[in-house]
Amino acid sequence: MTDSLSKAKRSWNMSRIRSKDTKPELLVRSLLHCDGYRFRIHKSGLPGKPDIVLAKHKTVVFVHGCFWHRHNGCSDATTPKTRTVFWKNKFEENMARDKRTVAALIALNWNVVIVWECELKNPNELLERLRREISKPAV
């Protein structure tokens, strides 16, 4: 199957994909804020520039898109039918970087929480999980 968009249009579409302040990230921040948590966002002094940093709880939260970060078993983690080698390499690099980042944060005694985009379909369950994860002592 070939791409139905021109190269210029595809490039324009891809340039609009945000890495910060995405809708899923904003929703997680809203859930936490409404629940009384206070945090910093995109703190550059930590490995991987976590999306949310709850310093009081020594916890960082990453909000991962299921497609880009390959949520195992998720129907949103599809692989494009064209340029599959490119995409496979891209996804493997993303996952390797995620592992390195988590390991570096754990080595610094931070509690790391990964929120998957698909979890936002049930915000009440997600908030309960976040409460449990944030209250855990860092390893």
UniProtKB/TrEMBL annotation:
Source species: Acidithiobacillus thiooxidans ATCC 19377
Protein name, entry field: Very short patch repair endonuclease
Stored SUPFAM superfamilies: Restriction endonuclease-like
Gene name per UniProt: vsr
GO molecular function ontology, one term from the record: endonuclease activity
Entry keywords, A to Z: DNA damage, DNA repair, Endonuclease, Hydrolase, Nuclease
Gene Ontology biological-process entries: mismatch repair
Pfam families, sorted: Vsr
Homology family: Belongs to the vsr family.
EC number: 3.1.-.-
Gene3D superfamilies reported in the protein's UniProt record: VSR Endonuclease (3.40.960.10)
Keyword Transit peptide in record: no
Task of the protein: May nick specific sequences that contain T:G mispairs resulting from m5C-deamination.
